[in-house]
Structures
1.
Amino acid sequence: MTFESLPLIESCDDCAACCRRTPIPPFQPGEEAHWNVPDSLMQPIWERIHLDQHFDLLPCVWLDMGTLKCRHYDLRPQACRDFERSSDLCRLCRDDEGILPREIRSDA
């Protein structure tokens, strides 16, 4: 599939491709304090970093894989807030994950 042929994305429902490719919430230094993220929610992030896992393809520790939604959406970092649906990166993440838009899936 060429980039030009990647479909525009109308909804984030049933997706989370970007979160499936971001193993920890991408906080900038000190940003978690700005959002008042409790230590208990930072703990899984620190553990993943401490384990120095090769987390190229691990989903975000805050992603609920059952619902494909962020468990702590109101506390997400600015990078997540700024990520644009149907941006080039969004469409590439979806393509990498093999997620087709609802309108062209065979199970829609």
2.
Amino acid sequence: MLLLITSKISEEDLKKAAEELGGYIKYVVDIKKEITTAGGSRHVQGEELLLHNGSTQEDLWGGGLDLETGEVDFDSMINIRPNQNNPSREVLSPETRKKIEEIVRRLLK
């Protein structure tokens, strides 16, 4: 189940978002609007949902949240952006990673 999250997620919706991947949630964060998607099997699904809702590509970053450990990762194919100095699946900018993690922890924890 893919959800668009604009305010703190309910416990019920968090569980629904985590069902598909067994306790792991893929997210795509819009760092400008400070919203995220949660769930789905591929980051591109969240990316498409956010783009459809007015987000811009340069503001979108993907990763995952392990509900068991609480670990946030920053790994997604949608993060490969040579034109934004990010030629890796991992988000390389410490500032961007910090912003992503703040949004994920506020909305998904």
